[in-house]
């Protein structure tokens, strides 16, 4: 895969995951440089998806927020909000793990490939939103709310922009332009 500043659309980051000669699973992530050092914040972005041939497993792109344990991604403590697509489904998925205990997944079916996603943290409450509108005045739709009463995510988290390609079909690609 590759990640770069998109040269065709000024100011956008794009992440693309292409298969090799045989379908192979791959995940590519771009981490925001600084950790979030507070328990009250929100992050949102516009996501524009371009899908190649799709297999039976879901390709995905969107936000992962993880406990920042010594600068390392923590799969036992994370909140995920992604657009997922396969040859059978198109949906937005939100799920969380706190101390390796899963909450969700919660899903919203949509065929829109130009969407906005937002994750909001209010203490130990995490809310996931989506919108079919992009840019300035967005009407957010709440997908779900997660609770982390023991604060397993701690006060230091890291935000990742992620593209996940399961590699279940030849020529399976996913590109996500992020603004």
Describe the structure.
0% of the residues lie in helices and 60% in strands. It contains no helices and 13 strands. The chain is globular and about 45 Å long. The chain starts with a strand and ends with a strand. The mean pLDDT is 86.
Poorly predicted runs are: none
Overall mean pLDDT score? 86
Beta content: over 45%
SSE arrangement, N to C: EEEEEEEEEEEEE
* C-alpha-based Rg, rounded: 16 Å
**Largest sheet composition:** 7 strands, antiparallel
Quick gist of this model?
With 179 residues, the chain is an all-beta fold. It has no helices and 13 strands. The strands form two sheets. A seven-stranded antiparallel β-sheet has the order 1-2-13-4-9-10-11, with no helix packed on it. It has a six-stranded antiparallel β-sheet with strand order 3-12-5-6-7-8, with no helix packed on it.
């Amino acid at each position: 895969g590759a990640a770069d500043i998109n040269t065709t659309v000024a100011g956008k980051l794009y992440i693309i995951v292409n298969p090799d000669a045989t379908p192979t699973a791959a995940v590519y992530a771009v981490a925001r440089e600084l950790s979030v050092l507070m328990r009250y914040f929100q992050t949102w972005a516009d996501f524009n998806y371009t899908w190649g041939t799709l297999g039976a497993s879901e390709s995905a792109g969107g936000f992962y927020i993880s406990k920042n344990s010594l600068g390392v991604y923590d799969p036992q403590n994370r909140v995920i909000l992604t657009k997922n697509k396969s040859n059978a489904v198109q949906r937005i998925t939100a799920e969380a793990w706190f101390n390796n205990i899963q909450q969700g997944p919660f899903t919203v079916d949509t065929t829109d490939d130009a969407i906005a996603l937002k994750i909001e943290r209010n203490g130990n409450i995490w809310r996931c939103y989506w919108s079919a509108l992009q840019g300035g005045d967005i009407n957010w739709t709440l997908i779900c709310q997660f609770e982390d009463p023991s604060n397993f995510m701690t006060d230091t988290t890291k935000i990742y922009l992620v593209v996940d390609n399961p590699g279940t079909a030849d020529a399976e690609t996913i590109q996500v332009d992020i603004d």
